Structure formats: C-alpha cells, structure tokens
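During the second year of the project, the team shifted from modelling isolated chains to modelling whole assemblies. The rationale, set out in the original proposal, was that interfaces cannot be judged from single-chain predictions alone. As a representative example for this report, we include one of the complexes processed in the last quarter. Its constituent sequences, exactly as entered into the pipeline, are reproduced here:
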Amino acid sequence: MNARSLPDPPAVVGMPVADVDTPALLVDLDALERNLDALARSLAGAPVRVRPHAKSHKCPEIARRQIARGAVGVCCQKVSEAETLVHHGIGDVFIVNEIVGASKLDRLARLAGEARLGVTVDDEHNIDAVSRAMVAAGTTVDVLVEIDVGLRRCGVEPGPDAVRLARRVADAPNLRFVGLQAYHGRAQHVRRYEDRQASARAAADLTRRTLDLLADAGLQAPVVTGGGTGTYLFDAASGVYNELQPGSYVFMDVDYGLNLDRDDEPVSFFEQSLFVLTTVMSRAMPDRAVVDAGLKSHSVDSGMPRVHGVAGARFTRASDEHGVIELDDPGALSLGEKITLVPGHCDPTVNMHDWLVCVRDNQVEDLWPIAARGASR
Amino acid sequence: MNARSLPDPPAVVGMPVADVDTPALLVDLDALERNLDALARSLAGAPVRVRPHAKSHKCPEIARRQIARGAVGVCCQKVSEAETLVHHGIGDVFIVNEIVGASKLDRLARLAGEARLGVTVDDEHNIDAVSRAMVAAGTTVDVLVEIDVGLRRCGVEPGPDAVRLARRVADAPNLRFVGLQAYHGRAQHVRRYEDRQASARAAADLTRRTLDLLADAGLQAPVVTGGGTGTYLFDAASGVYNELQPGSYVFMDVDYGLNLDRDDEPVSFFEQSLFVLTTVMSRAMPDRAVVDAGLKSHSVDSGMPRVHGVAGARFTRASDEHGVIELDDPGALSLGEKITLVPGHCDPTVNMHDWLVCVRDNQVEDLWPIAARGASR
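Output from the structure prediction step:
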C-alpha cells in the first residue's frame, strides 16, 4: 500500500551545514547533549524517576540517549507512537493519554506482549474496554487514572471520582492499577517564576489529596506522574510526584524561551538545540527578505519563529512555503544565504519533518529518522 | 537510508466510515467531484486556461482529475513537489515560486528534461543561475517574472523592474520568457465581495501596466498567471490574466468559508469536501468533550477547526494530540463517538497526513497517497 516513499534526507553525513538543502530540521548535537545531561544532573539524588515525553522528538535515537542517562523509559500520546518506539527497541513506554476504540485497544493489547506498557484512563466504560482487550490478547497493562489538576482537558476531578476509577481498574482483569497521571500542561507556560511555582504547587496539592483518599481506600499508587519542562523541578521537590515527563527540554522553542527565571530574566537552564535551516529566496524589496520555510516547515500555533543570530530581523508572516522577515537593515541577508529559525513550538514542528539533521562543529554528523512522524493514531 | 516506513493507512477500501481509525483525513468524493466540475463549468468559454495549484492537495490522483476536466497542467511551490508530480505522470508543471541554490537548480534542470516545466524569478542573479543550470543539463525551462501586486512577499514592483528582468530572461541561454506571475494572495481572503473584487481589480491594473511596458519593449508575455479560489472569477473577467491557479477550491476550509458572496452571505459555490475524522476520547467533564485530533492533525494558523454537524459544539483549544470541544448540551457527543472537523486551513493540514481516505455513501471507496507530503524542498 505504500505507494509513496519517504522524501530523501536533505543532507549527507559529513557535509558542511552550508550545503544542507532547505528547509531542513537541524539539531545541534552539543546543545542536545548538554540538555540531556542538564536534566539528569538537575535531578540527581531527587526521589523521582524520569520518563521523558517522546511526543516531542518522535525519535528512537533520542529516546535511547534519554534512557542511557537514567530515564526509566519514555511516555507518548498514541498507540502508533508506542508501536514505533517499541519496535525500535524501547522496552518501557507509558501512553499518558486515553486510548478509545476497539481497533486501537486491540493494537495496545498486542503491544503489551512486547514491552512494559502503560495507559491512562478517565472513564469506567473505557476501563472495561481496555480490560476486555487485554483479556482477549492474554496480556496485561499498567493503568494510570488521570486527574485534571488544572489543564482542563482530559481527566476526572481530583478526589472521589479518581478513587472510584482506581478501584474499578484494580478489580478489572488484566489491568494493574499503578497510580495517577496528573499533568498540568498550562502551568508549564506560566511566565513568571513564582506564578509557575504556585500553579505547580496547586496541582501537587490536588494530587496529594487524591493520594490520601486512595490510601484511605486501601489502594496503592506507586506511580504519580506529571510535570513538564516548565515545572519539573517544582514537581520533583513537591514530595507528591515520583515520575516526571518533560519533553521539550531536549529541543526548546520560542514559547518556552519566554518563561522567566527567579530573577525575571528568561530561563536559560536548557539551550535551544532545534532549528529550521532555511534559504533566503527573495530579496526583491529592501525592507524584507523571504525565506523558504513556511507553515509546512514549522508550526506557528504558539507564535512566529525567531530569526537566530541576525540583528534587526523579525519573522512576521508565514504562508505555506514562505516566511516573510522584516529587516531594519536593508543590507542584511542576501539572496541564497542560509539562516536558522527557532521554531515557535517544537513538538508540532518536528512532526512535519521526516529527518533530523544532526550537526556538530558546523558539519552533518548523523541523520536520524523521525520514526514516529505522523504517528497520531 | 529510509529507516522508517510510512504509517499504514487508517482504513481499508470497502470499510464503513465508522470503522476508519482516527485521526484520519477524509475527502468526500461527491463533494470533491462537484467542486472539480463547478470550477470547470464556471470558466467554460472564458478566455483563460486553468492550472490548479497542487500545493493544496499534493496528490497526483487529484491532479489527474483536474487535467481530465481541462486543466492545462498544475502549479506547485517546490522542486521536490514538481519531481513527485512529474514522476507520477503529470507532464506540465509550473513552479510559481523562486528556486534558489545550486542543488535545487540542478534538480530543476534535470527535471526539465522529463516534462514541460516552468519556474518563477524575481532577481537577475537568480536568472543567471537558473540559466547556467539549464545549460549544464542541456535543458530549457519556461520562466515567469513575478511582480508583487499586493501580497508583499516575493516579486519585484510592477513596471520597469519587471521589464528589466524579462529582458534578462529573454537574453539568457536555455530560458524561455513566457510571462508574468501576478498572484495576490491577500485578495483571496478579503471577506466582502465588493472589497475582494476591488483588490483583484487593483492587482489586474498593476499587471496590465506592466504588460504594456513589456509590449513597448518588444517582449511577448503569452502567460499571465495568478488568481486563487477567492478571486479567480474576477481574474477571469479582467481581460489581463489568461491562466488561473486556484488550489483550495478542491477542499475548502473554515477560512475560505468566511468569505462573503454578493449578498453578504457566506460563499457557497464550492463545498467543503475535506474533513478530519476524530474520536471523542474523553467525556469526563459535562461541559466539554476531548477529541484525538490536535496540532499534529490539522493546522490552526488560520483559526480553529469547525465541528461539523453538531449543534452547540465549539472547538476552542488544540494541543499536540487533543482538541477541546465546548458543549452547550452536556448530553451531546459520547465517548468513542466519531465526528468530523472542518480544518481551519486546508493546505498545511493536508501536509500533515500521508493518506487521503476517499469516502462515498458512508464507505471508503479509495485510499490516495498524499505523494508530495513533506516535499518542501
């Protein structure tokens, strides 16, 4: 059925970055490795496990490097992502998301025979459906009950509703109740440090109350998972969370770069490692340059990309295959020049590309397939 | 190097739509065919050729159906799109966009040996580079000079600058000067009918002035191309354009649906044929349903998608793999229910998917690969 093949990679190993075809998704390997190390170092000795979110990179090569630095496994959002990760050798994957529908649950149940697998629930009928699928496949899955600690997306209210679902999981054949999914996505992007900390604390308080009720009901919750790039240090110190799922920290983006540190300066703990390489394709007008990376090369859902390393250059508009950059200096940027953009939002940007072009010392060191690109089912 | 394979299609031919896995990109074949017919019919007898823009669909199956209804060929934005189209049998492709850089021009020049090919220029050094590549490959290409008629993106000012470039093309080895690219992208989305008509007329006037100057200079411009789904009827009646490049009309989207007709009612000439099929994955809260199609399944650059056929349901927020739908009626939408979304912007939505699931009479009739997905180079 695969009547189309993947696009060729935009580079070959050993090539100077200047020769990479555009648009291309670059990862600065030094910065990536420093980010991976910084996360591990910042949690050394903390009573938490790390289970990074693979939805950000969709790339088994990066998952392997996270696990090599101590991660217990990874998490992801979809069955097809989990399949890709498991088939590339990742042995411990939590789908921190609800999986609904018979065909997906059949695949989930089969996959649970190949790896340690977790899944998230927020509905009793869904719990029964997951259980039936597992029984049919003769497999077992770890189950997290999701509580809504402020994201206002999936999850039941913290408190008795969660206990009711946990009991149902514990009683259902071929399900193992392992704990709570308590991810506060909105808190990640609260700009001021103290406000972000307060949001994280509120989520932890709601989670703690639910854990107390679970204990009262005699239900053990060995896993309490949540946290993202914006709050994971608060979550690690909460005494509530014991598994953290940051994802964007490997790459960073414009949106995360707007978060502020304690001193009201932009956070700098993680570095930008992800860039879109693009070529100036038009300089017909003095006040603007047009580049060849638009809505099909980077996601603008969280705002426009930032032009990296060019003073007085602002990316102001994107159409399908164009980016318009307004220039203070009409002499800046010449036709054919290659520049890099910092994506507004890393995760959906990565999902547009088939290849990560890995760069070090201005040279292409490796090409990593974004193996789970498009794996949204 | 293709260390990852394409995701499997979300359906098999003959399956009821209710069994299609989600998220999936559906095309209603009846609506698509009516749109294809409506465009052809609306231009019957008009002194214009149709060359639809393939960047919207990236799908040779649709290009073939456009040509079968009288299109002279298609246009596209990138060399890699043109390669895909030509290798799937499309013999006449204009890249209505500037192509910059030696590796792309080498590929363009080779491809020009396999099909009738056009390319667009707005810079004299680029003209020389295109010519050199063609000479090296021993091929010839049709060249359009782009003028900026209001889009403020690529293109030189209408008038003498365009004549200067046209002369340079005409004098360059292995280039054929064929005319002007004069696309007014902004005019497509001007909401009121009379305002949209006025924008299109202003673009036509600038183009006519440039054509007069070209004629004074003894330069023939047999092709004057532009127009989109929003203005093509105005452009057809302008007496200036003789080739039109609408793209979105095959699918339509929320944004185009906001354009108004002469009576200030929403335009209805083309029908919505493109939908994202999605499953309700959480109903934990009475006021909202969460679906499994987020930023990785549809593009929100032009606004949120519209929930199709469900009264009182508003898609208000998207994260990577979730859509939050607020409900007036807490009893609307049940867990596991499949619904369809009208994408905010069709082109970048299509580019996220590998397969078009073709539906008729509530059944999957065909699966078309989106052969040029990701072909942004």
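Chain B has a mean pLDDT of 97. Chain B touches chain A through 82 residues (CB under 8 Å).
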